[in-house]
Design goal:
By secondary structure, the chain is of the alpha/beta class. It contains 7 helices and 20 strands. Strands 4, 5, 6, 7, 8, 10, 12, 13 and 16 form a 9-stranded mixed sheet that branches. Strands 1-3-18-17 form a 4-stranded antiparallel sheet. Strands 2-9-11 form a 3-stranded antiparallel sheet, with no helix packed on it.
């Protein structure tokens, strides 16, 4: 059965801001994608004068990676894992790239992606083949968002799209294993579901890949923890509201009220995490823009619920591929979970204000100096921390 968007209110909605989830979980053991698409801003098909939402230049400036976008990431592969098929993913990402003056991706096969001499795009099913799953318009929006963010931050990277046959956590996890087997150095995952007692076994089965950076959205329902963001083998990515500012940086960030955070019910605390208010794994580790009110431009031509063309997205689905692509810019030597960002916390922008829910005012749901749940250690300031 095709999944549909929910009618849930837009997290932290400002006046005049209307958005809806692109897709939702339909059963226990299934994941929802973490994309929120604005319904009050819809652009045209094809190249546009000025798409609404932040573009690549904005994002590279905000996260201080503009100087790294020359040859950085060349030859590296970032995998995007999502559910169902987006039949227009390759064409759409090249419209996005053309709009912003980024050279087009070549087409390549999953087996040859790491030997390509130019940045290329490959697509596989969850087993590494070409038996793609059925189309789903909501997940197609998620896929377009993810591949566009990878293009924005790491234009020289190869992009490998691995499509799970359904939104079950088992199929999505199988897709992560396939992405790693096919040579991805970074795997971005913009989905999550309710925690469950068997996740400590499943995190070992699907997300334990030392030497590969695996980013996961922290969730879009505010204070509370989802899996696989709770895994100790991933970098859990929270969310911010990103705005221009009259500062040396030129940007400011606060906690996005929809970002997931808190203490895992089941996963033990990793050795690199030292906060004292949670005896188990704490979410999140780092963060990036996620507020639909300060959202990003995305091109998606797979019409869904009357939306297609240039769209504006938020959700921690934006943040996970942004952070994953920053990892790809700098290489992933020594990465095991989020260990490298904790070792280099001084190379991040600290986010010190805002809240995503009620937790007695503690750091688990409130922006604080240093570590806090909704934004982790902060947002990228260049690629040194990654």
């Amino acid at each position: 059965m095709a999944q549909s968007a929910t009618a849930a209110p837009t997290p932290g909605a400002a006046a005049g801001v209307h958005a809806q989830r692109s897709c939702a979980a339909t059963a226990p053991g299934a994941a929802a994608c973490q994309a929120w698409v604005r319904t009050d801003i819809v652009g045209k098909q094809g190249l546009a004068a000025t798409p609404s939402g932040y573009g690549p230049t904005d994002l590279r400036s905000a996260y201080n990676v503009a100087s790294l976008s020359g040859s950085a990431g060349a030859g590296r592969t970032i995998a995007i894992v999502d559910a169902y098929d987006d039949p227009t993913a390759f064409a759409d990402v090249n419209v996005y790239r053309a709009q912003y003056g980024i050279p087009a991706l070549a087409s390549c096969s999953p087996s040859s992606i790491n030997s390509s001499t130019t940045a290329c795009f490959a697509k596989s099913d969850q087993n590494g083949g070409t038996t793609y799953p059925k189309k789903n318009g909501g997940w197609a929006q998620e896929i377009s968002l993810d591949v566009d963010m990878a293009s924005a931050i790491c234009p020289k990277c190869n992009i490998l799209l691995v499509e799970a046959s359904s939104s079950s956590l088992v199929n999505l996890g199988t897709s992560v294993n396939t992405a790693v087997r096919l040579g991805a150095e970074v795997v971005s995952n913009s989905y999550g579901g309710t925690e469950y007692s068997g996740e400590t076994s499943d995190e070992n089965t699907y997300y334990n890949h030392p030497g590969v950076a695996i980013t996961v959205s922290s969730g879009d329902a505010g204070y509370g923890v989802e899996f696989p963001a709770a895994s100790k083998y991933v970098t859990a990515v929270g969310g911010t509201s990103l705005r221009t500012a009259s500062t040396a940086r030129g940007w400011s960030e606060t906690v996005w009220s929809g970002a997931g955070s808190g203490c895992s019910k089941y996963v033990g605390k990793p050795s690199w995490q030292t906060d004292t208010g949670c005896s188990k794994r704490t979410v999140a580790d780092v963060s990036a823009v996620a507020d639909p009110a300060t959202g990003v431009a995305v091109y998606d031509s797979t019409a869904y619920q009357g939306l297609s063309g240039w769209l504006v997205f938020g959700g921690t689905s934006v943040a996970a591929p942004v952070v994953g692509s920053v990892y790809a810019l700098n290489g992933v030597s020594g990465v095991n979970g989020a260990n490298t960002v904790y070792a280099n916390a001084g190379s991040l922008y600290d986010v010190t204000s805002g809240s995503n829910g009620s937790c007695g005012g503690s750091y688990l749901c409130t922006g604080k100096t240093g570590y806090d749940g909704p934004t982790g250690l902060g947002t990228p300031n260049g690629a040194t921390a990654f």
